[in-house]
Amino acid sequence: MEHDNPIRxxxxxxxxxxxxxxxxxxxxxxxxxxxxxxxxGGAFSLSDEHPRTYLxxxxxxxxxxxxxxxxxxxxxxxxxxxxxxxxxPEGELDQFFYCGSIVGAYIIFPARMxxxxxNINQARGTNxxxxxxxxxxxxxxxxxxxxxxxxxxxxxxxxxxxxxLFGSFxxxxxxxxxxxxxxxxxxxxxxFLPFREFASSxxxxxxxxxxxxxxxxxxxxxxxxxxxxRQVL
Length: 233
What we know:
By secondary structure, this protein is an alpha+beta fold.
C-alpha cells in the first residue's frame, strides 16, 4: 500500500551523522533500488554481507565494491562561501539540507582506491574544478563515455569497468534515474549554474547564483525521488 512505502513518504535519514556511512536504511534502499537488470544484460545484484564493504557485486561482469555518495552540497560550512551563506535565511538553508537527506539525493560509486589513488567520491570532492558538484561530475561521466577529457578523466578511467555495465551515457542516466538532469536532446547536462568549460570556480559567486543553485538542486532531487518511487510501486 502507498502509505507503507517509505520512499514515497520522503524518508529522511539520521541528520546527526553522515548517512552515507551511518544509515542502514539508506544502504537498504541502495541495495533494493540498484539490484536490477542492467541495460547491457544480466542482473546487477548487490549484497551487504561482504566484510568491511558498504555494498558488493560479483558476477561474470566483474567484482565491484560500492559506496554511497550525496548528490547535493549546501556548502554551508565551506569557509570561502561564508559571506554568501550568511545572507541566506536559516530556514531556507535548513530546507535545502533536508532535501539532501532523502533517498533521491544519493547514488552509488565504486569505493576501491585503484593503485592507491583516489576513488570517485574522493576525487570529485577534492578537485578544484568540481568541488563536489554532481552536475559537473555528470558532465565528466558523459565525456568519459564519449572518450573526451575532463577534470575527472583519470579516476573515471580507473573505474571504466563499472561504467561499461551501463553500455552508454543514456544507459547510465536511465539506470540511476537521472533523466531530470538531462536536456530534452539527451546529449547535454542541465547544469545547476552556468557552465564555462571548467574554466571558472564551481562555487556560486553571489547570492543570486546560490539561490539558483539551491533551487535547481531541490527541484532535481524532488523529481528524482518521484521517479524512484514509481520504480518501487
